[in-house]
């Protein structure tokens, strides 16, 4: 169920009415609402999700007993096995077929009929984080199975994040009865929901057919066309994914709750470390806290640190999809992060730290890293590692930057980057701008502007509604 469909809007409105009308019944109300939201993906998917939720909940209760370590690893292994079975089984068998030159799957094999349960990657990581945090006594187990279900399945963030931790979200679930209607929260929710819908239906969905057209002929793209395709996909996936995250923020504010921010204008990053602090922030933090640091982090020397960093980023790539292109994408960022660490060390030894204060240096670093990011997006978007590497090779030739006949597309890309910069300043000065808006513009003028924005979005919503890119993960 997409956030910008009439069906979801109806579900949200009914949920809100009951939520504020019956404060004592908020857990059951959200329990039912979450089930209705998820059952659209299929009854089987819902039953699987319910089973994994119940399993994880009861295992978490055992993490305070004498066999806590056993139950921790048993529950993690089952959660990971569930994810691997539904997401990677066919990929692993197909890879084995290619390596061994034998056929393991027949055309009517039931494994080929496996449907990836929507949101499984996100709720699996959230459950693992919860189990580890309970085991390490960072958080107490949920008071009831229904509370845990609402924590895991709250429909605002269920399908594509943000990935919430126990310490971030469980206190809000436990205090649901105390939440009171807040006009300020509703204004903030409306702002984020509107921003997300605008990004999705006006920007991301506009770019989709152009991006699809370019990548439908990957094998014949010139280097220049490859860059244009990568530029446009970079903004398509950003506007699409950040739209979902911001709509999730808005929906949560309607219910008086707050979710973690998942994006902070990532294409203004100067290096891979900064990029992953701005892009899919909750996943980056999850990888750091539950993969990188347990592996040893930076505690055992530089070589071990770089190895751990490479492994963590590779796992991040694998999490995104069952394809060698995603593995290569993760490894690419692992290599980039390692090179950046070495570069920072060399720069410090040469006494060049002052460069970080230079506007020209920062501008060049942003431009260069944006192009490196676009190379990575080719690995993410193209089907088939050989085709992706072939296109990247053409993009790295000197003549690839002769954009003859592509000026219109370049103009669109420059406009999109400009919007990205505007978004940065809007978020940075949000409080001041809101105060200025309400101070200098009377209510009738604001009402006209809001009506115009709503009319524009309704006009775009009348067209075909595309699913969110990250729903496939």
Automatic annotation (TrEMBL):
Keyword Transcription: no
Record flagged with keyword Cell membrane: yes
Signal peptide: none
Any one GO CC term of the record: plasma membrane
Residues spanning the membrane: 6-23, 35-58, 70-89, 110-132, 144-164, 185-208, 228-255, 309-339, 359-380, 400-421, 441-461
Main location: membrane
Keywords: Acyltransferase, Cell membrane, Membrane, Transferase, Transmembrane, Transmembrane helix
GO molecular function: acyltransferase activity
Compartment(s) of residence: Cell membrane
Protein topology in the membrane: Multi-pass membrane protein
Biological process annotations from GO: alginic acid biosynthetic process
Pfam families cross-referenced by the UniProt entry: MBOAT
InterPro entries per UniProt: Ac/AlaTfrase_AlgI/DltB, AlgI, MB_O-acyltransferase, MBOAT_fam
Family: Belongs to the membrane-bound acyltransferase family.
Protein name in the entry: MBOAT family protein
Phylogenetic placement of the source organism: Bacteria, Bacillati, Bacillota, Bacilli, Bacillales
